[in-house]
Prior knowledge:
By secondary structure, the chain is mostly beta strands. About 0% of the residues lie in helices and about 50% in strands. The protein is built from no helices and 43 strands. A seven-stranded antiparallel β-sheet has the order 5-31-30-29-28-27-26, with no helix packed on it. It has a five-stranded antiparallel β-sheet with strand order 4-36-38-34-32, with no helix packed on it. Strands 33-40-39-35-37 form a five-stranded mixed β-sheet, with no helix packed on it. A hairpin with a 3-residue loop joins strand 11 and strand 12. The protein is globular, with a radius of gyration of 25 Å.
Amino acid sequence: MLWLALSLPACQRFPCQEGELLVGEECVAANTGGDTAETGGPDDTSTPDDTGEDTGTPIQWQALASGCEPPTDLAGDPLVELAAVYKGQDVPGETFAEIVDLDKRGDWILGTGQGGLMPFDVSDPSDPQFASFFPERMGRYYKSEWASDTRVVLSHRDRGLELVDLSDPSAVTPLHFANGWGYEGLLFHDGLLYTTRRGVGVEVFDLSSDRLELVETVAGLDAPWEISAPHNGVAYIADAALGLVPLDLRGESATLGTPVPVDGGGPLHVSADGGAVFVAVGAGGVAVFETSDPLAPTQVALIPVGGSAVMTSADSGLLWIADNEGIAVWDVSDPADPQPVAREITDQFALSILGEGTQGYVGDWNYLRSVAVDPSVKAPHLEMPGDRFILPVDGGTQTLRIQNLGSDTLELRGASADGGVTVEASSLSLAPGEVGWLRLSYGGGEGFRGGLCVASNDSDQPLFTAEIEAGVDDPVIGQPAPDFVLQDLDGNSHSLSDQLGHPVVLAYFATW
């Protein structure tokens, strides 16, 4: 399913009520002491901390040097692409890949998603070889799990579980299918398959006869997604409603432990490495837990991401993160003090990732990408909040939250902008992980659409470019939402104007 959710205040209250400004995702009281309208971030009288909270210290805005030329003293790139295999939609009617999960055993990595099951030979990471689609025409699965060197289990949220034979990856053979709804996460451990199922909990299957034989059901979950590999006999389940849920596999029967709340958001994915557990929580980042008490894990850190963390993979002290917009690698050898190593924006949608030490694989929608990281190479990464910025019609400022998600000091070297817009920064240098702010100022006048360029010592993208506009009437942005009427599933009519003063969410999506 593809979806887009747009959160709007109700009719005639867009984007905020009179006397309020939109800061991040919240409407807050405007600063009436100045004559410029801040549309996000701090005002001139306060320096924010990394979360945007006011510290009470005045900002000393600094103008960036005029001009936008790429620096000549760039460091190396710690994260490099070795190869990419593309299976896109260029030929209508042909099977294509939209990879949402990855699993690896030996020289084979499995992609799943639109396209079904997609085996790749990665015996040479610099030259991955695609083997086949299963089924051959436009299939779909969500997760895969190796049950042996030749058997793989696949999950489909709407149809059920399937056991297949992968003896010949170019011609996958179906073995058995278990019909059902809500299957998601998969774990094969000590001869048994454990799978999370929405509305049920954990179901346990015996595969010894090349069939999916249900042997046990463990109730007590709400909205379970992924299940991690076990550590010391305990696996962990990412439940979007309950939090992080231990699954004790040490007894004759599996049992669920007490759910642990996760600071940062609802869990979407979980992975484990040694005594640490890493939970993807969307825009909140990645929550890190230590498991000295396996049934009562304790959160010790929250790792920021540029996009929305949807999958993690931890191995040998390195944490690989897919956040839709790109990927990141962090050093988690000390789980309580994670350090950024590298960050890379991908071409499409980075929804899945798998790391083995310094070697990584990325499911970037239509691509399988093979990448490698060198933690000894230190380089900064400038993370910007978007690539299109709108300034107040009558003049004012737009304040942008930026962050250094690289492993070396970020230096802002210069900037240029059309329309007489000036660019200032709360600081011209940011340490690894540090948050800062850019301020775009527009004096008003004739409307324009133009460009913004920011130069930095980010070795991967030394010139960041974006669109800016000001004083231009836009049919959507900043205008009152038109009234409309829609029916719910029971046939009742609802109008936008009925919701005046209340937040409204419009969700557009397609399913197949």
